[in-house]
Amino acid sequence: MSASTLDVAYVADLARIDLAPDEKALFQKQLADVLGYVNQLQKVDISSVPDTPIDPHLPTNVLRLDEIRPGLPTADALANAPAQANSLITAPKIVE
Amino acid sequence: MTLATLSLTQLRQKLLAREISPADIVRDLAARRDAVDPAIGAYLRFDADRALADALHADISLPLGGIPVALKDNINTTGDLCTCASRFLANFRSPYDATVTRKLRAAGAILLGRCNMDEFAMGSSTENSALQPTRNPWDTQRVPGGSSGGSAAAVAADTAIVSLGSDTGGSIRQPAAFCGVVGLKPTYGRVSRYGLVAFASSLDQIGPFAGSVEDAALLLHAIAGPDPMENTSRPIPVPDYTAALTGHVEGLRVGIPKEYFVEGLDPEVASAVRAAIDWFANHGARVTEVSLPHTPAATAVYYIIATAEASANLARFDGVRYGHRAPDAKDPLDLYRRSRAQGFGPEVKRRIILGTYVLSSGYYDAYYNRAQKVRQLIRRDFTTAFESCDIILAPTTPTPAFRAGEKTADPLQMYLADIFTIAANLAGVPALSLPCGFSSCGLPIGLQIIGPHFAEETLFRAAHAYEQAHPWKDRKPAL
Questions:
Q1: Is A33 close to B318, i.e. CB distance below 8 A?
Q2: Boundaries of every domain in chain B
Q3: Which of residues 414-433 of B touch A (CB under 8 A)?
Q4: Residue pair B131/B83 in contact by the 8 Å Cβ criterion
Q5: H or E element: which one contains B309?
Q6: Is A95 on the interface with B (CB under 8 A)?
Q7: How far apart are CA B90 and CA B45, in angstroms?
Q8: Catalytic residue list contains B271
Q9: ipTM of this complex prediction, to 2 decimal places
Q10: Contact present, B118 and B147 (Cβ < 8 Å)
């Protein structure tokens, strides 16, 4: 697994972050260094590890009782919205 | 004589004896903060008027009654700003209390102010804060550590009695070591994260900073316990941690992991930690060497798992429902891309990109799945080690506090500042840092005590006994 396979521009697009050209160049180098470092994991013998971990200290699924409780009032939920109208958050339209 | 330099325990005694009032404490902290924080920058916001108003109604019969507590700025408090030191959340006001906030209020604590941090808790020096720098009270040319650098620096500078931080890979213990205070990352599942802004959910844990082990124990007691709002919090009763502070370590089995005494460990740190180990050996503890063979892989595992989880957790910051929205977006994709470009700082972008990459099609097995398996080996290392010891002693950090600007251009070097703290997060075990000496240039050195899951009492017992014999905490920075 070569570090050069990380195409920062492509992955930033997957992550929905616009990068300036100088950021792209800087991150390309810095992340190549980090990937070069993490590639040491390819040398660790993992043959003894099961696909599903068996560990009593890992969290298990916990469900609350399905009962009605007070929720966040609409005004509070909308208080941080960048734009709103009619108790709804407004955003650029998705379909033409 | 200012009350700002007293411990939580001392202040509670004076409050109960009616020698002082909660408002006296707030006033002294506010005066101290005005005098020294301009040079430190620990606080992003400090509301003395509100704290004074709250002090007048404080119920001192409660466990933390009348005690002011400072919070890292990623813990929600109804109606207050919660910025995560990010431009993205510069104007975000919390719609609800975090569980730890609610518990602090219920215990009678006074919420005092909000501490600086690396943006979204990503960093080891607090230099990634988008809002302001924070400096180390022991040397203002140096960093306080991170990401909870403000919470640690405030306690070290006596502008807070105690504070809360969060620890994903060392973000409580490393700044505690750099600033010469006590910091604890509790067991994964000991403290509810409901209302903590999520970074890496399989690793994040909230914990206390304090000037003494006893104060840290009292603060943990107030915030720990199961929470119906947080399904990783475990239904295990919270013990009276102060009952564990017996002052002796006789019969305690102490493990020394050889993998933590390696090349790159500063000689002064090594000798301070070795001296602490000798003290345990000379006071009835049984010291043995243990092995945590997968330690060298921990940092690599961490920067795959933590970034993968961050890339998913931070997907919520899209400019739609709250936080920064780029103006004049032409469509939703444009809105996401530009809001995130404008709102996030460089380290946050780097980690989201790395996390997106290690989860992406074709690389998932090679990076993420493999890292999860090595993580199991690291957990297994601890399980095996704790068959032959009760606690593990190690350095908290490879060096004392480094200089501001020293590592900012090289993210990998910054990541390696956390090599000794990350494994405890990956394994989910509790770990505490307390002062164990000073370097020749007067910088604090941290001793790390790691225990098995839910063995916080044992950590407190060992740390408190050592602290009683070594009052490093009485030494204060010149400010």
A1: no
A2: 3-254+387-474
A3: 415, 428
A4: yes
A5: helix B298-313
A6: no
A7: 12
A8: no
A9: 0.94
A10: yes
Amino acid in position B112: L
Q: Kindly report the nearest CA distance between residue A35 and chain B, in angstroms.
A: 9
Q: Is residue B72 annotated as part of the catalytic site, yes or no?
A: yes
Q: How far lies A19's CA from each of A7, A12, B185, B251, B313, in Å? A: 12, 7, 35, 58, 20
In a 3-state reduction of DSSP, which class is residue B206?
strand
Quote the tokens at residue A49: 């590890």
Q: Is B166 part of the annotated catalytic residue set?
A: no
Query: Are residues B331 and A94, on separate chains, in Cβ contact within 8 Å?
Result: yes
Structurally, what CATH architecture does the domain formed by B3-254+387-474 represent?
Alpha-Beta Complex (3.90)
Which residues of chain A neighbour B232 with C-beta distances below 8 Å? 59
SS3 B469: helix
pLDDT of chain B, 479 residues: tens digit per residue: 799 999 999 999 999 999 999 999 999 999 999 999 999 999 999 999 999 999 999 999 999 999 999 999 999 999 999 999 999 999 999 999 999 999 999 999 999 999 999 999 999 999 999 999 999 999 999 999 999 999 999 999 999 999 999 999 999 999 999 999 999 999 999 999 999 999 999 999 999 999 999 999 999 999 999 999 999 999 999 999 999 999 999 999 999 999 999 888 999 999 999 999 999 999 999 999 999 999 999 999 999 999 999 999 999 999 999 999 999 999 999 999 999 999 999 999 999 999 999 999 999 999 999 999 999 999 999 999 999 999 999 999 999 999 999 999 999 999 998 999 999 999 999 999 999 999 999 999 999 999 999 999 999 999 999 999 999 999 999 98
Q: Domains in chain A and their CATH numbers?
A: 1-46 (1.10.20)
Which of A38, A58, A80 should we substitute to test contact with B (largest number of B Cβ atoms within 10 Å)?
A38
Q: Is there a contact between A17 and B376 if contact means CB atoms under 8 Å apart?
A: no
- For chain A, the residue count is 96
Query: What is the least distance, in Å, from the CA of B82 to any CA of chain A?
Result: 12
Does the pTM exceed 0.95? yes
- What does the alpha-carbon distance between residue B414 and residue B144 come to, in Å, rounded to a whole number? 13
A42 touches chain B (CB under 8 A): yes
CA dist B342 and B334 (Å) reads 12
- Catalytic residue, from B124, B171, B192, B233: name it: B171
Please give the backbone phi and psi of residue B112, each rounded to the nearest 5 degrees, phi first: -105, -45
How far apart are alpha carbons A49 and B191 in whole angstroms?
29
Q: How far is CA B361 from CA A9, A32, B173, B358, B368, in A?
A: 16, 18, 35, 9, 11
> Is A34's CB within 8 Å of B412's CB?
yes
Antiparallel, parallel or unpaired: β B182-185 and B391-395: unpaired
